[in-house]
Specification:
InterPro entries: Aldolase_TIM, DeoC/FbaB/LacD_aldolase, LacD_aldolase
Shape: globular
CATH superfamily: Aldolase class I
Strand content: 15-25%
Protein name: Tagatose-bisphosphate aldolase
Family: Belongs to the aldolase LacD family.
Keywords: Lyase
GO molecular function: 6-deoxy-6-sulfofructose-1-phosphate aldolase activity
Distance between the termini: 21 Å
């Protein structure tokens, strides 16, 4: 396990609950967030950058500030919510470095950086930590050397800048791979991604739910002491709570929850957003934090 620096330890504490469990509201989505605002007069394509920024600001005000930390993007939400005081002083800020979408190279997915994003830029935006997404197929190790080299490079650059980097890994189905074949290898792909990322120097991981208690325990073993948080991947809240409980019971450090919290809590109307986020999303966040803290407090 790669040791955290003092600054990285402070950042990890900032994005964690009082019991030490990671809990971050993921709100860095761009097109995905527009898609859930189904009452927009001209549909998702008609939602402007300014309207999306307004929605993210409300999401922070009525939900994110009630969590230890929020994950935001530098294309719409930042630096606005810092400069205008919407971000509470005791709410941790994780800055997304990845751009929307992906490229395809030799049949494999590749993510891209937001233009101009560097660890220094994360610091300039007020970030306590950074997050970068990579797609990875652990069963294609020889073809993923560039991805692993990029992880190692960015971890090193973030450490030099005093920024904690959360390494998000998404595995995915290949073209021509059957649903059954992908389902069969899915848990091992997440386990393998954890092992490869840690070998590349990752200090904190954000990973998909591997499907079972056994899968979560295998990911924890592969992470070799590096904390990992499970992501919601758009499942409903009740399903995600169960996944988080199982993951944390088997060694995960917490959760990064996005659409499972707010996918039915956003609207093109600010007044409607406030009502939905307060009455629907916030109770879910409270329940999620309670589950994480309950399981962690029961650990020996």
């Amino acid at each position: 396990m790669t040791e955290l620096t003092t600054l990285e330890r402070r950042a990890l504490a900032k994005i964690s609950t009082a019991s030490g469990g990671m809990l971050i509201v993921a709100a860095d989505q761009r097109n995905g967030m527009k898609a859930v605002m189904k009452d927009a007069p001209n549909g998702a394509e008609g939602i402007s950058t300014e309207e999306l920024a307004d929605a993210k600001s409300d999401l922070l005000a009525f939900l994110g500030n009630k969590a230890p930390a929020i994950l935001l993007d530098p294309q719409t939400a930042l630096p606005r919510v810092v400069d205008d005081g919407t971000l509470d002083s005791d709410t941790g800020l994780v800055v997304a470095m990845d751009a929307s979408g992906f490229a395809v190279e030799n049949g494999l997915k590749r993510t891209r950086y937001v233009d101009g994003m560097t660890p220094r830029r994360v610091r300039d935006l007020g970030g306590d930590a950074a997050k970068m997404l990579w797609y990875l197929r652990a069963d294609r190790r020889d073809d993923e050397a560039a991805v692993l080299d990029d992880i190692a490079r960015l971890v090193s650059e973030c450490e030099a800048e005093g920024v904690l980097l959360i390494v998000e890994i998404l595995t995915y189905q290949l073209d021509g791979e059957s649903d059954d074949d992908y389902k069969a290898v899915f848990p091992s792909l997440i386990e393998g991604a954890a092992a490869l990322s840690v070998a590349a120097g990752a200090k904190v991981l954000k990973l998909q739910y591997p499907g079972s208690a056994e899968g979560a325990a295998a990911v924890t073993a592969a992470a070799a002491g590096v904390p990992w948080a499970v992501l919601s991947a758009g499942v409903d809240h009740e399903t995600f709570v169960g996944q988080v409980r199982t993951s944390v019971e088997n060694g995960a450090a917490g959760a990064m929850a996005g659409r499972s919290l707010w996918k039915d809590g956003l609207s093109i109307s600010s007044a409607t957003r406030e009502e939905l986020l307060t009455t629907k999303a916030l109770p879910r966040l409270v329940e999620l934090e309670s589950v994480i803290d309950e399981v962690l407090s029961a650990r020996p």
